[in-house]
Design brief:
The protein is α/β, with parallel strands linked by helices. It is 21% helix and 33% strand. The protein has a seven-stranded mixed sheet with strand order 12-11-8-7-13-14-17, with helices on both faces.
């Protein structure tokens, strides 16, 4: 069935299908939300009510979406009152969500070697994007995921060889490996099989193994903490490849009304203040970091 595309945002009472806890105060929640699932794209997010006693919504990126089965997966980290309350919600309960919201990632034609970089709770959009690229025969993505707490899955040795990656760096996300998508994990916490360092350091090693023609086919997509995105943007500039980043900002309304999440973006007409929730969260890296 062809997936439709609309530009509207749904208010939906979603049912919790499953709710899994992982080390590092991380959780993966699957919601039955057919309207949102039908429209979700890599980079979009939902604005949800964590608990009836807390009216202020929280933005959470969509990690996976099934149009046919009507569910979405959300990965989040328990860090404050809202996510602490959300972590207590049980399967069968209903959660009010607004979504999907935001400008998604858009691959550029002619770039067959996408590099996807996700850090911490910035991993979900990269997993969603990688899954969408499975359907495109001309794409050969490479995914680098980084975390300074245990990953919200059990890393396994990859079955996919990646030229340029140091010997012994074999830890991968099983789901991506099962999809046939090359991926590696990075951390400074000395996790088994992971690259000991920053995601950008591992990406740079991968770049150095590519010939000029292959490098010209690379496009970077990234989501994660601001310092990581700044480093990714600098790397993209150094290697002269296009780069899109998804920004993480505190949001109040999530639908562009309050202008509480604005960032300065360079446009053809000069600097402009853009709302991360609806003008983003995805922007060209060079327009944000320069």
């Amino acid at each position: 069935m062809t997936k439709p595309h609309h530009n509207s945002v749904f208010l939906e009472e979603a049912e919790i299908i499953s709710h899994q806890a992982f080390d590092g105060d991380q959780f993966i929640m699957r919601l039955l939300a057919p309207h949102c699932a039908a429209k979700a794209e890599p980079g979009s997010f939902v604005h949800l009510t964590c608990d009836p006693q807390l009216p202020m919504r929280r933005p959470i990126s969509i990690m996976r979406s099934s149009y046919n089965e009507g569910w979405i997966d959300l990965l989040y980290k328990r860090v404050g009152k809202g996510t602490t309350l959300l972590a207590q919600r049980q399967p069968g309960e209903k959660i009010s969500i607004l979504g999907p919201i935001g400008t998604p990632f858009k691959a550029t034609p002619g770039h067959s070697r996408p590099l996807l970089i996700g850090g911490g709770v910035g991993m979900p959009p990269m997993i969603f994007l990688a899954e969408s690229m499975r359907q495109e025969s001309d794409k050969q993505p490479f995914v680098i995921l980084g975390s300074e707490v245990p990953f919200p899955f059990k890393p396994t040795p990859s079955k996919i060889m990646i030229p340029g990656i140091p010997e012994g760096v074999i830890a991968s996300m099983p789901l991506l490996d099962d999809w046939g998508i090359g991926n590696r994990l990075a951390s400074q916490q000395e996790f088994n099989g992971c690259f000991q360092g920053y995601v950008t350091e591992l990406a740079d090693l991968w770049f150095r193994n590519l010939d000029r023609e292959t490098r010209s086919q690379v496009e970077i997509f990234a989501c994660g903490p601001h310092p990581m995105l700044e480093a990714v943007a600098a790397m993209a500039s150094e290697w002269q490849v296009p780069c899109q980043v998804s920004l993480e900002e505190f949001m109040a309304c999530g639908i562009g009304g309050c202008a509480g999440c604005v960032v300065e973006v360079q446009t053809a007409d000069g600097p402009a203040m853009k709302r991360v929730c609806v003008d983003g969260p995805v922007f060209e890296a060079a327009s944000v970091f320069n």
